[in-house]
UniProtKB/TrEMBL annotation:
<dbReference type="InterPro" id="IPR036514">
    <property type="entry name" value="SGNH_hydro_sf"/>
</dbReference>
<keyword id="KW-0472">Membrane</keyword>
<keyword id="KW-0378">Hydrolase</keyword>
<feature type="transmembrane region" description="Helical">
    <location>
        <begin position="46"/>
        <end position="65"/>
    </location>
</feature>
<dbReference type="GO" id="GO:0016787">
    <property type="term" value="F:hydrolase activity"/>
</dbReference>
<dbReference type="InterPro" id="IPR001087">
    <property type="entry name" value="GDSL"/>
</dbReference>
<dbReference type="InterPro" id="IPR035669">
    <property type="entry name" value="SGNH_plant_lipase-like"/>
</dbReference>
<keyword id="KW-0325">Glycoprotein</keyword>
<comment type="similarity">
    <text>Belongs to the 'GDSL' lipolytic enzyme family.</text>
</comment>
<dbReference type="Pfam" id="PF00657">
    <property type="entry name" value="Lipase_GDSL"/>
</dbReference>
<keyword id="KW-1133">Transmembrane helix</keyword>
<protein>
    <recommendedName>
        <fullName>GDSL esterase/lipase</fullName>
    </recommendedName>
</protein>
<keyword id="KW-0812">Transmembrane</keyword>
<keyword id="KW-0732">Signal</keyword>
């Protein structure tokens, strides 16, 4: 389908079915009744018939697409809350009884209920997949099925009764790069004190590797030759635990950067030894722009802030430092393992782009560093009433916000980043060019 045809379809949907997205979370009879309530006039009924015929055509078109050979047969993901699709929400531990992301308004924009994702809807991983009919909800952000990977949403490893043949997500919200026992031995207090580090996730992967390879050709050593591995982000939780939960200095946090980069690099190398051929290694967001950092580590010196309102020393000393070291390590891994295709994907630059030109990208320029969901206070960050708890509310237009809560981005921001990972300029090489 051409770009002109897609735009025509999208305009038709907006003109005649303004509440299509609102109906998306509904299922079965509820969706039918809600849809019927909108169909009142003869003109509307005629529009419905035309639209259904259009959907029939597009269904055939999509089926033809689905029959084509996909770039990748599965996705295997590691990371923290920027990648978790429901593992922490399913984690059974007394310390997680009051986990806020299990409560509304998390998930309200797309799923209509908390999905285990630490945002209002979908994350980058979801937009990279784009399952059947996912293009309808993604047209606004110009990610089409022919551009994305055409795989189903990657299920969290802790989801029961799931088929992991087309991918598994081992990422856990709150996961640090470094091990729990090591961090605790350094007198670092973790907000989520569970064994979910990068090494823990790799051990889970290694344990389930035989089952992931069970459907492959007997005797084949190329189990993951057509799988896409996504590593990260990792490091953000380490720094938040050091700076916020342990009240340590920036210099102390910076001292862990080389070790975090080593852990990520060793993890990538470990995956290559297991047969990974296509790997995306993600950098971390600007820590100095997070609402939680701005609220909890404020400065009385205006010179400490950049022109966007971010804390310069936290960005330079942590995020930029880690990202530069990690990029060099990725380049070294490419030289050491020329058969592997390794992409370096960015969170940092797109967030800066949001702050540089929010209006052009559809964000509210007056609230760029303010959490959409929170309980008031500077940057809408409130320890007593975090998002998902009594006293906290969500803003009226999450699609106009960059930050959903005090740490995480909104679905709108994630969709933009995903497009940059798929096509560039926020991945080197872009994911869609990895195979070539």
């Amino acid at each position: 389908m051409s770009t002109v045809q897609e735009i025509t379809v999208y305009i038709f949907i907006l003109k005649h079915f303004k509440h299509v997205q609102a109906l998306a979370p509904l299922r079965g009879s509820k969706a039918i009744l809600a849809f019927q309530a909108q169909v009142t006039s003869p003109t509307m009924k005629l529009a419905v018939v035309a639209f259904l015929l259009l959907l029939c055509f597009l269904s055939c078109h999509h089926s033809a697409y689905s029959g084509e050979k996909k770039l990748f047969t599965s996705i295997i993901s590691f990371g923290d809350s920027y990648a978790d699709t429901g593992n922490l929400a399913r984690w059974e531990d007394p310390v997680l009884e009051s986990l806020n992301l299990r409560s509304p308004p998390y998930g309200e924009t797309f799923f209509g209920h908390p999905s285990g994702r630490a945002t209002n809807g979908r994350i980058v991983l979801d937009f990279i997949d784009v399952p059947s009919w996912g293009w309808i909800y993604s047209l606004k952000r110009t990610i089409r099925p022919a551009d994305a990977l055409g795989l189903p949403f990657v299920p969290p490893v802790l989801a029961k009764g799931q088929n992991f043949s087309m991918g598994v997500n081992l990422a856990v919200a709150g996961a640090p790069a470094l091990n729990l026992t090591y961090l605790q031995g350094q007198n670092i207090t973790l907000e989520i004190p569970i064994n979910s580090s990068l090494n823990d996730q790799l051990r889970w992967f290694e344990k389930m590797k035989p089952s992931l390879c069970s459907n492959k050709t007997p005797g084949s050593s190329d189990c993951f030759g057509e799988s896409l591995f996504i590593m990260g982000q990792f490091g953000g939780n380490d720094y938040i635990n050091i700076l916020i939960n342990s009240n340590m200095t920036l210099e102390q946090a910076r001292s862990y950067v080389p070790e975090i980069v080593n852990t990520i690099s060793n993890g990538v190398e470990r995956l290559i030894h297991h047969g990974a051929k296509y790997i995306v290694v993600a950098d971390i967001i600007p820590v100095g722009c997070l609402p939680i950092t701005l609220a909890m580590r404020p400065s009385s010196n205006a010179a400490d802030y950049d022109r966007y309102g971010c804390l310069k020393s936290f960005n330079a000393g942590l995020s930029q430092h880690q990202n530069a070291l990690l990029r060099r390590r990725v380049e070294a891994l490419r030289e050491r393992y020329p058969h592997a295709k390794i992409a370096f994907a960015e969170h940092y630059r797109p967030v800066v782009a949001f702050l540089q030109d929010p209006d052009r990208l559809g964000f509210n320029s007056s609230t760029t560093l303010v959490s959409c969901c929170g309980g008031g206070g500077p940057y809408n960050q409130n320890w007593e009433a975090p998002c998902g708890k009594p006293g906290a509310t969500a803003c009226a237009a999450p699609s106009k916000a960059i930050y959903w809560d005090d740490v995480h981005l909104t679905e709108s921001a994630y969709s933009y980043i995903a497009q940059g990972w798929l096509h560039g300029p926020y991945a080197d090489p872009p994911i869609l060019h990895l195979v070539n």
